[in-house]
């Protein structure tokens, strides 16, 4: 997949992921980690912050975990990037960020959304946007490239405001 190639240049340390995974057990023991299903079938799970990945990622590939962490760290970017998987209509998403994170709480806690775990389009868009951003591209340029790449043969984009 294209996102695998993009992952090689993301530069996210695997130690960050290992540290996040090791703290999951502690969180599970004190029941601060909770999971709920939504009407769209997506699972939402709260963790103490972006350093702690959700339980639903435990059996997923390291690449997918890395994309989730990168997405959470690039909220402002991905909120300006539409998703082309149809989630705007099926899950009421407004942008690509919504495919990974449902809510950021004032306390720093994160409510993750597992939508991205079931969708290669979501993963590809997030990975490409983050890689391009880290390579110095401007948001408008990234958005234009993604719009052009996914305008034909994909679902209607999320209703993401123009940049």
TrEMBL record:
InterPro entries: PCYCGC (IPR025673). Residues 26-45 are annotated as: Disordered. Transmembrane segments: none annotated. Pfam families: PCYCGC. Keywords: Signal. Residues 1-20 form the signal peptide. This is Lipoprotein. It comes from Peribacillus asahii.
């Amino acid at each position: 997949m294209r996102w695998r190639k993009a992952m090689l240049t993301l530069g996210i340390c695997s130690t960050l992921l290992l540290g996040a995974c090791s703290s999951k057990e502690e969180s599970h023991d004190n029941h601060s980690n909770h999971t709920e299903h939504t009407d769209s079938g997506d699972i939402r799970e709260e963790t103490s912050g972006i350093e702690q990945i959700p339980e639903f990622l435990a059996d997923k590939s390291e690449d997918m975990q890395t994309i989730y962490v990168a997405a959470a760290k690039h909220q402002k970017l991905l909120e300006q990037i539409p998703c082309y998987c149809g989630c705007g209509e099926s899950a009421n998403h407004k942008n690509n960020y919504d495919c990974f994170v449902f809510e950021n709480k004032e306390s720093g806690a994160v409510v993750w959304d597992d939508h991205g775990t079931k969708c290669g389009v979501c993963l590809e868009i997030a990975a490409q946007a983050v890689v391009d951003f880290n390579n110095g591209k401007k948001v408008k340029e990234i958005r234009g490239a993604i719009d052009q790449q996914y305008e034909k043969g994909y679902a209607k984009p999320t209703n993401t405001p123009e940049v």
